[in-house]
Each structure stands twice: as structure tokens, then as C-alpha cells.
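Example record for the data management plan.
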Amino acid sequence: MTEQADPRYRALDLWDSETALRAIWESQIAAVAAIGPALPVLAEVVEAAVLRLRAGGRLVYAGAGTSIRIAVQDGTELGPTFNWPEARTHYLIAGGPAALSRGIEGAEDDTDAARAQVAQAGIGAQDVVLGLAASGRTPFTIAALKAARERGALTVGIACNSGARLMAVAEHGVLVETGAEVVAGSTRMKAGTAQKVVLNMISTQIMVRLGHVHDGLMVDMRPQNQKLRGRAREMVMRLADVPAAQAEQALQACDWQVKPAVLVALGARAEHAQDMLAREGGILRRAIAAIRSGS
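Corresponding structural encoding:
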């Protein structure tokens, strides 16, 4: 379906720009709406992934072309936003890193390269591998998921065509049926939008479940500039109910890490704050409850 020509758009090149843009906009809305039926499967994916990642596994993205470029964008944001270690994010890229900025001829068909990348990365039972392909039949991505599953990894196949082989070879198949594109076969459009939103949803909810979000706040973000330091100060002020000066003092004592700084602002000693968090699995809510109960 993603490669079929939609008769609605056959005269696209004859339309004025506003009419064409409205049609493209409507197709983007439809792409996001197509994710709805996949929500139960996405919830299963998150819960299964959290178990592996809590055990020290990596979040691994696999794909070719548009799909892997979208995936790299998602994965790259996890470090600064949630302090997710870059060493625990990995990419299996058809054509290698050079393919992120230009097309590499034949890369998506290279199944040997897919298997080699899986082996070289040492993919194992604790890892979570997300394979993306709009068509669901990209040989590189299918081979990567098969090889990863053989090594015991949790595998997820995300595709936009029903009956796609990618979903069949994965432990969890996620179908987001976006249909024909405004420009036939240009899966950087509806399919690409749907894939990006699906990855946003999966990675964000994983980080929430792992304790990197508290009260809707990015409490594990890396405050690497003045704007973000101001945001960190505001978070500590709000969560510990303290004035700005006290919040900043707590942050300075904790190397500008928000979660331990909240505990310090609530009365914990700086040298004990990280240990308190560790005892509570990194979950700030539990650590705050422990302080308030005196335990």
C-alpha cells in the first residue's frame, strides 16, 4: 500500500500550493491517526523492553534509508533529555553511518552486512532491537531482526503494510497501516511521520517507566547550558517547595543533577542522596516518600 499511487493526488502538480499543502497536511494527520489500533501492542513492547533495559540492556535501532534516519534522531535525543547513556544506544544502519546523510546503493539489500553488524555489536539477551521499514520487506532490516532474535534479544518490527515479513520475524510486530502516499512510494511522508511518532511514544514511555520522568518533568535531563540550568532550578523549587537560592545550592551540591538535588533540598545529605535513589531503583517518587516517612 505504501508504494501504490493514490488517485486523489494524480493532479497534485496542477494544484496551487495552498491546496496541495492542505492535502499533504491532511495526509499527515491521517498518518498519526493510523497509530491508534497499534496502542495495545505498543504497550506490550514497552513493558517487555523495560524488563530488559532494567537488567542493563541496550536500546538498538535497525533500518535503512528514511527509517534509520528517523531512528537515529529518536535515539540521539535520549541522552540529553533523560541522561540515557550513549553507550546503551546502538544503531544497525544499512550502508553504515555514511548512509545517514546520503543514499548508499544496494545497502538495504545487504543481508550479510546486517548479520555482521549484529555480531559485531554483540547483540544479546538483554538488548531491545527496534527494526523499522515502511514496506516491511527491507532485506537488511529483516536479516538484522532475525539475527538479533537468534541471539536472544527482544525484537520489535515496525511496518506500515499488513502482512509484512518484518513483523513476522520479530517477537512483537507493530502495524501502522498508513496507506498510499501523496507522492507514490515516498515513505518519508506518511509512513515516516508514523514511524517517528511511534518511536517517540515507545522511547518516552520506556524512559517514564525507568524513572527518568517525575510529575511530567525531565528530572534526569543534562543541564548543559544556562537555559537548562534555569529549568533544573525551577524543577527543584517546584518538587521540593523551596526558594530559588536553596534549590540552586542543592543543585551545586549534587553536580547539577535534579533528582538528588530534590532530596537534598528536602533534607537529605548530598553524599547520601545518590544511595537513596539507588535503593529506590532510581524512582524519585519513592525516594521522596522515604524521606517524608523518615525511613
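Summary line stored alongside the record: Residues 226-293 form a domain with the Helicase, Ruva Protein; domain 3 fold (CATH 1.10.8.1080).
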